[in-house]
Amino acid sequence: MSGVRIRVLKPDELGEAETEAWRELRAKSGAPANPFMEPEFTLAVGRVRPAARVAVLWEDGEPAGFFPYERGPLGHGRAIGLGVCDCHGAVLRQGLTIAPRELLRACGLSAWEFDNLEAGQGVFQPDAAEELASPVIDVGAGYAAYEEVLRAQSPKFLKTTLAKERKLGRQAGEVRFVFDERDPAALRTLMGWKSAQYRRTGRRDRFAKEWINALVRLLHETRTPGCSGVLSVLYAADRPVAAHFGLRSPTVLSCWFPAYEPEFAKYSPGLILHLRMAESAAAQGIGMLDLGRGAAEYKDALKTGELRVYEGSSVRPGARAALYWLSREPARRAHSFVRGRPRLAEYAQKTLNQIGRLRGN
């Protein structure tokens, strides 16, 4: 901590010099250029989450680090945008060291919860309770090379998906793909599909929360080099049949909210959409699509590799930290127990689906 000063700000209090320093530190980190780690994402969250804060670390009179977070009751902190942020952590100058307890103390936090901590986060990674896989698609060598990988590792999948794409065109009308659709109506369609999917599968509807709605709409309008909202839509006879909204940097497309029209399920429009996304991303110089943590058959079929992310919490000893542990840790451990047992996870998913059907009746 010698020579390091910490100042806590609201995101909109960051100056241009500070946000530019954030971008430069991030570019020098050597980590994949995930758009969730750019200042624009934190700035957007700050506009819809009043509790959003950024700790700015100063060393030798210059910004040397940034730690975005949200502060809740009793000093219980959480990652910025927790629940929808697929990559988080601190952005620090190489060689800068700080103890997590000191950073939390400066932020007035008794604990900081994370569920998608980026690999290599030396401050917080030792406190992780679980290491998880985040599947990725590598298109750095071009889309044709990616197709060759698919032909080698899952030839039936690729052949079947391309056949369904042709069948969709014959039976539903000409298939058209737009990588970066700007029409707000298309975004509303996607959000409606996704809400219905959450309810149908018995999961919490994220779009029932107004702040998530507002955040996605805001990011759809965000156009910066490091973090831009990208809405991709697959059309059949000019009717949207599948869509995805995510964030991109020059080299990474972070996949976020995919959904499709159930009426067209037999054509596997979501898989077709992801293949076209990979093709367009490669054409624009994007080298990686990060599919996000969580098990799913479509991710297993599409992925070429995996990144590692971490779940857990850093705490400062004290009564407030104990209250945090009692309120959060048992549930986290239960979720981890289920995830680590495929048969139990399958049973849990069937139960959620049954709940979804009951809700729909």
Automatic annotation (TrEMBL):
Domain BioF2-like acetyltransferase residues, every copy: 160-299
Pfam families: Acetyltransf_6
Record's protein name: GNAT family N-acetyltransferase
